[in-house]
Amino acid sequence: MLTDTFGRKHNYLRISLTDACNLRCLYCMPNEKMAVTPSSKLMKVDEIVGITKAFVKLGVTKIRLTGGEPLVRNDARQIIQQLSKLPVELTTSTNAVLVNEYIDVFKEANISSVNVSLDSLNADEFFVITKRGDFKKILGNIYLLLANNFKVKVNMVVVKGVNEHAILDFINWTKDFPLDVRFIEFMPFAENKWDRSKVVSYVEMLDVISTCYAFEKLRDEPNDTAKKYQVKNHAGTFAFITTITQPFCSSCNRLRLTADGKMKNCLFSQGETDILGAYRRGEDIKSLIISCLKDKKEALGGNPNFAVTENRSMIKIGG
To answer: Which of 35, 124, 142, 222 is the most buried (most CB within 10 A)?
Structure first.
């Protein structure tokens, strides 16, 4: 088992397939002209599979495919099919624009849970946030996933002055649909114009919800990043990812692999390890993986105050 110097066991690997995306969300990719990584520098299918096998041999049991938008990659179907043969729980995050084209491969790969990013339930506001007009298609694909018995988690990044007024819309959505809506505190990354004044805290969001709904706290599972709740008699649930105001680093079990094959032991870590380069040279990547994990800080990449540091943008790391 992959264990860091603070005794945390890591069995969850998030693999970014690409840093390209078909949306331009203001908190993630505000610069529309941001250059994507050339395909020659991305992990190829066989490299993704080979590197992942090394992680699995070291104890990884869950894998999430991320991006950018993972489904814009031309060989995403092949990657999903190959990884589904490994003894892991395979999941994915997506903006759902292309879900209808991939739902068959999701079923074949025994993917049962899909995370969908959606920051407004109003088409006009969605366009302002994403600079794209795919709202109806995304909503239709969420309902398509539900109709095919997928567990759907809807991730909403809450930014003050942008979409905090929509919190109650999402809570109301859980009344008739078995969705798990997750409200995410706005996090700082390179070039996303983060400012603490734009953060809507978990406590503030709960206060807003309590003005209209009575709810109960649900039991959180070990290693959960979300604090879960449910409104009485609602089909779905809601939760909060409280990275800024109440970090959950003490139970972290996550590792990340960027689309160009760099390992990050924390979302906020400044350092990274070139796994792909070593793999292409035929070197022992297991020792590199272990060494990278040993360097993991106790919390927030060693940057507890979220001061400006050298790190990739969110889209270059992978969600």
So the answer is: 142
Tally Cβ neighbours within 10 Å of residue 225: 18
CATH code for the domain of 122: 3.20.20.70
**Do residues 243 and 227 touch, judged by C-beta distance below 8 A?**
no
Q: State pLDDT tens for residues 43-56.
A: 999 999 999 999 99
pLDDT tens per residue, range 83-114: 999 999 999 999 999 999 999 999 999 999 99
- Backbone φ and ψ of 81, nearest 5°: -60, -40
Strand (E) or helix (H) holding 90: strand 89-94
Assess contact for 121 and 175: CB atoms under 8 A.
no
Q: What's the total number of domains in the chain?
A: 1
Question: What is the structure's pLDDT at 308?
Answer: 53
Please choose, from the candidates 284, 187, 286, the residue with its C-alpha nearest in 3D space to the C-alpha of residue 242.
187
Q: Count Cβ atoms below 10 Å from residue 215 Cβ, excluding itself.
A: 16
Q: What would the pLDDT profile of 120-131 be if each residue is shown by its tens digit? A: 999 999 999 999
The residue ranking higher by pLDDT, 115 or 192, is 115
How high is the pLDDT of residue 254? 97
Angle at which helix 135-147 crosses helix 99-108, to 10 degrees, equals: 20
How long, in residues, is the chain?
A: 319
Q: Which structure tokens are listed for 268?
A: 């906020």
3-state helix, strand, coil in the chain (%, to 5): 35, 20, 45
Q: What does the mean pLDDT of the chain come to?
A: 93
CA end-to-end span of the chain: 24
Domain region containing 297: 2-317
For the whole model, what pTM was predicted? Answer: 0.95
CA distances from 49 to 75, 78, 82, 296 (A): 13, 10, 7, 24
